[in-house]
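hey so i finally got around to running the thing on that chain from the lab meeting. sorry it took forever, my laptop kept dying and i had to restart like 3 times. anyway pasting the input first so we r on the same page abt which one it is
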Amino acid sequence: MKKLKFIVAAIALVFFGTVAVNAQVESPKPEIAKVEKQKKERNPEEMSKKRLERLKTDLNLTDDQVKKIEKSDAAFKQKIESQRAAFKKMAEDRDAEMKSILTDEQYAKHQERKKSMKGKMKERAGKRGHNMHNRGQRPQQGSGGQEK
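ok and heres what got predicted. didnt touch it at all, straight out
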């Protein structure tokens, strides 16, 4: 009976210890998760409208100017999409060429490296997004540089 009580107490201690430790552990990158959520919530059309409204009020634009800016923005967006499609095609062509040059094993390793680099780039972009409120400000230099 004592042995059973001891085992139950040990299991309870481990369980509650684990719960307490997990309650204290934060997500490793909460700021990245927040930025990713904000990116998903963004609506390009809505952002464009807000930008145009800010321009309209800040610059006292006329209705004619607003229409011209809307037309200019639409043309710009179309050019960007066209270039994005061309770039995607070039990347696919390059990938096909790499596949023809490399062995299957080398190509698989190459693909893994690309995937890893993409993940690192997203992580860095998330960190930059978190510090967007510091835009336009110079970073403070460490002890090795001259501070102004």
